[in-house]
Write a structure and sequence with these properties.
It is built from ten helices and ten strands. By secondary structure, it is α/β, with parallel strands linked by helices. The strands form two sheets. It has a six-stranded mixed beta sheet with strand order 6-7-8-3-9-10, with helices on both faces. It has a four-stranded antiparallel beta sheet with strand order 2-1-4-5, covered by helices on one side. It is globular and about 50 Å long. The protein starts with a strand and ends in a 10-residue tail after the last helix. The relative contact order is 0.19.
């Protein structure tokens, strides 16, 4: 059975004045897939996620979610997409309950109070339902932003460093919830530097460096390409070997993964 393509990025480009943040990037994510988006700082990961969600305009190419193009039908795209940044900017004067009520109203979520209660229970926010966002810890703000994204069950779920601020229990819970989102048919993209987490829950990997795609495929295909068919090598081991410049694949990519500089965008 042919998979339903939810996210489709074709020849995407993003430039800031004379700086190229993303250059001719193409990839797609099908329903039920979890794509790990990895690369060094400045690779263009956050820029790509923000463009797909319609937060920033592209400089060229085509970005679609659910068959709708971001540039020509942004409202349709935003109605099907949830983007959770690494540092969510919540409304400090609104409570946890008010945030979820606002999202439910904006996205016309039916039976939202039941769904809210289940999310608050799952993310250990039940006791904070009447707390202001400004009074929440960093991890709790992250959980609230994720709950807001999950509430309307989007077709495309874009998570930028979602583990930031979470304790071990929160990380474990989030990982299981991401798998549940994919099982219901969502196309999930996770940008993260935590390679072990990517390997745990992602079905596919997209490696970016300096705004360009270096690899896209399954975890198994990545190992075949860059680890000389060593199937028991972890994703982390592959990149550590690359840093040591052993003969496992493209040395240019290996150097890029430990770079801390790059063009505008992360």
């Amino acid at each position: 059975m042919k998979q339903q393509k939810v996210i489709d990025v074709v020849s995407f480009q993003k430039a800031y004045e004379n700086e190229i943040a993303v250059d001719n990037l193409s990839f797609s994510v099908d329903a039920g897939q979890v794509l790990g988006l990895i690369g060094p700082n400045g690779a263009g990961k956050t820029t790509t996620l923000r463009a797909i969600s319609g937060i920033i305009p592209s400089s060229g190419g085509r970005l679609c979610v659910g068959g709708n193009e971001v540039s020509s039908n942004p409202l349709a795209v935003k109605s099907q997409t949830a983007y959770v940044p690494d540092d969510p900017q919540l409304f400090g004067d609104l409570t946890v309950h008010q945030h979820l009520a606002f999202v439910a109203s904006a996205y016309r979520v039916a039976d939202w109070t039941e769904k809210m209660s289940a999310l608050l229970e799952r993310f250990d926010l039940k006791e904070k339902v009447n707390s202001l966002a400004s009074d929440l810890s960093r991890g709790m703000r992250q959980k609230l932003a994720i709950c807001c994204g999950y509430l309307y069950q989007p077709a495309a779920l874009l998570l930028d460093e979602p583990m930031t601020g979470l304790d071990p229990r929160g990380i474990r819970m989030l990982k299981s919830s991401i798998l549940e989102q994919s099982q219901r048919g969502a196309a999930v993209v996770i940008s993260s530097h935590l390679l072990a987490m990517v390997e745990d829950i992602c079905t596919h990997v997209l490696i970016m460096d300096k705004g360009r795609k270096k690899f896209q495929g399954t975890i198994g295909e990545l190992k075949t390409t860059f680890a000389n068919n060593t199937n028991d090598a972890t994703l982390e081991e592959i990149f550590f070997q690359a840093v040591e410049k052993t003969s496992i694949g493209l040395p240019v990519l290996a150097d890029a993964m430990v770079s801390t500089s790059g063009p505008v965008g992360s």
